[in-house]
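Researcher: Good morning. I'm working through a list of sequences from a screen, and I'd like to move beyond sequence-only analysis. For each chain I'm collecting a predicted structure so we can compare shapes side by side. This is the next one on the list. No need for commentary yet; just the structure.
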Amino acid sequence: MLTRGSEWRRWDLHVHTPETILNDQFNGWESYLDAIEAHDTVKVMGVTDYMSIANYSKLKGYKADGRISNIELLIPNIEFRIAPPSDRATAINIHILVSPNDPNHEREVLNALGRLDWEYRGHRYSCVPDQLSALGRAFDQNIVDDRAALAMGVTQFKVDFTKFRDWYVKEKWLQHNSLIAVAAGDDGLSGFQRDGAWGGFREEITRFSEVLFSGRPGERDFWIGRGSDLDRETMVRLGGPKPVVQGSDAHRLADLFNPALDRFCWLKADLTFDGMQQILYEPEDRVFIGPTPPLYHDEARVIVAVKLSDSNGWFDDVTIPLNAGLVSIIGQKGSGKSALAELIAYAAGSWHENDKTNFLSRAGEHLEGLTIQLEWADGSTTSTTLWQNDSENNDVRYLSQRFVERLCADDHIGAELVREIEAVIFSYIDPTDTLNASNFEELRTIRTEGIRSEGERLREDIQRLIQEECELRDGRAKLSEKKTRVKALAKEREGLVKQTPKAATPAEALLQKQLQDRRTELAAAQQVVATEKQKIQKITDIRTRMVNVKGQIVRFNTEIDTMLTDAGIADKAAFHLQFASDAEPILIRRATEIQGLVAKHEGAAENPAKGTIRWLEQQIKALVDRDTADKAQQQRIKVIQGRISAIDTEAKRLEAEIAKIEGPDRERLKAAGDERLAAYVAYFENLKNEQTTLEELYAPVKAKLKDGTAKPQEQELEFSIRWEVDIANWLQRGGALFDQRTTIPYGTMQGLGDAARKSLLPAWASGDTRKIADALTAFLTEFRKGDIRPVDYLRSGITLSDVLNWLYEVDHIRLTYGLKYNGVELEKLSPGTKGIVLLILYLGMDVGDTRPLIVDQPDENLDNESIYALLTTYFKSAKKRRQIILITHNPNLVVNGDSEQVIVAVAQRRADGLPHITYVAGAIENSGTDGQGIRQQVCRILEGGTDAFLKREKRYAIAYAK
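Model: Good morning. Structure tokens for this chain:
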């Protein structure tokens, strides 16, 4: 047996026939049978008559004789009119839909009807044709015609609801083999006003019913729970949800199978009474009222059959039909469940070749030449021969057991799982917002490129400002030394002046003074020339810097041209960077000016101008030549005067440096610290911009999880963007800077770490820039205490720059994103719970992928409670938009997931020891008289058999009410 199981087919469960007791407008049986045979869409008829199955039996006889072969199933529909009357003084229509499975069902129905009676004028009349005719004659003694008497008896036979219910409950065969259906229209429940005098009866009748007859969309919405909160509360109180079906209620050929407004009744079920009973458990998903059945799937992405051939005896040459909904493949261990899934995945180009433990890797050498053909709902086919013409189409999403286990292992929160998550996020982004990126990683790079470049610039600014501050601090640390040096120079000068030999004559004194003055002037002139030559070096540095910047400008202009072209902007000149004018002439002109000044200060080689270096050198030489003192004294004076000139030059330089340190450098030191903190805070502001950009990318998914349509279970899954801080590594890097044998800020590394965790960690993790600035400022207070100097606690070779670069480091803080389930990050979940999250992604979130989904044993590491409470819901939801092929051992997924088709795999050993694998397939409601029906096999394989299931049920001893 190989069928597609539960499929949408048209049922008409309320059709009268010729000879119906009331309002017969048909023209005999022949035309009636012809009319039925002219319809090829209706497959099941509910053959209706009033308090009788006589016409059902007659139509059943016609079918047995070969008529109406297009009708697959006839169901007796016994219609009753029961008291009390509604507010509109009409009796209530109640139907009993009887299962025809029991070969003796007609006799059982007649026996039960014979035990339902009504008293009139002291006489009891049972609900069988002769008694009903007698009731009619008793009521109207003028009736002569037998048919008229029967019609009158039926009209008057209106049993009180309470008595009708008691009778039905006592009729155990009938109760176990039928369904109670109540009309929801004016001749049924709608005839009562909710606050009317018969409101209590309305509620009792409603609770008694299992099915309702109505074609009104609002009625169906109410009974499947789509109404308001108050409506849902009322529906539950009345025993709902309940399936709402529709029938033509035909009393003439024109109405046969033709309900008003084309409100046809479609049931997704096996064409059996057992199939119809499934609508009690799935009143929304198994029933549809409308002109055509619902079409949920893309037909180009639904496999309607898989054909196997040339398997070397491993499989029969067979075509296995596949349902478009949830296909569950079950069987004993080693029966070939995964084999079928892998063969489908292989033919679709989605098989995982790297898994050496799967079926094809182990058995592939025996299957070479096996042909697999997939037939798709749009009429196309995909055919491949194993190991010969592999497909790369990737036409299905295949989640092998090993694939899920690998992604969800304790030690695996890596790139592969992240890519799966990102693929889901990417599927939710509007195509117009993907910026032509092919995947999420590429889109994220495009969206954050500018932000991350700014982040790098800010990091460079922090390092530059730290370097500048350290240089300023080094200069400030030498201030005392410089002042001491100035005092020492003054003292040395004073001593040298005292040591200068006394002139013997006034003329010699004048000569010494002139020499000292000229030497001092020479030193000053040389200092001026040195300063001017420094300017020439600056011009050389400026020219080098310009060359570098020009290279950057060329690169920028090239990149911006490409971006402008992509943006469709033709006017590029406005975006090009360039110097305002040619700077080289300015540099040449200024260099020439400086060189002229240098030459002027140096003086000409011949006849140098007064005050130039060469003139002063000539003057000094001339004065020396005039000196008449002894040569030793002359040399002594020369040395002292030269030293005094050098002291004056150095002292002047030091005084200028001291003035700079105490003036501009002091202000700059404070400004550099403020700018460094500002750059540090700006880095985190920039990181917040990246967070905002990422949140925009995740917004569609977050909206899906939080909108009003999300199921409660979906609310437990959320995407999160968080500031992740690796404070342990940060502290470890800091610890390498300190000599921990000494007293360090906060006493010890333990104390420092505790302080960082208390103040810095919460601020960093919050992403609040104000908190970060305040926390860092407060944390640094301990480092600025005057009694603890860095030199006292830093390791040898470690500088203040190293400490500041560590304190202002940002590498340990980054944005991460991921999933939270019940408030717990994905990486902290158990492998089984990770599996739930992964399946929720594929089933509930990955709406952009409509390819068939093949899942191999997702229940392997999951508990039954989670499967029932979560996965079952997601499987039921996902199968409406994509075909699902599921290999499982779990009855919750198969039964409570309401599988449209169950495929049972069986493997038998051949004489050569190799297996022969066969499959049977059908609806879960399929029952076989030989115990080999799909329902019985599901119970045997997944529950251990009927006896085991019933024994467990008794042991649980759970009380429940029907």
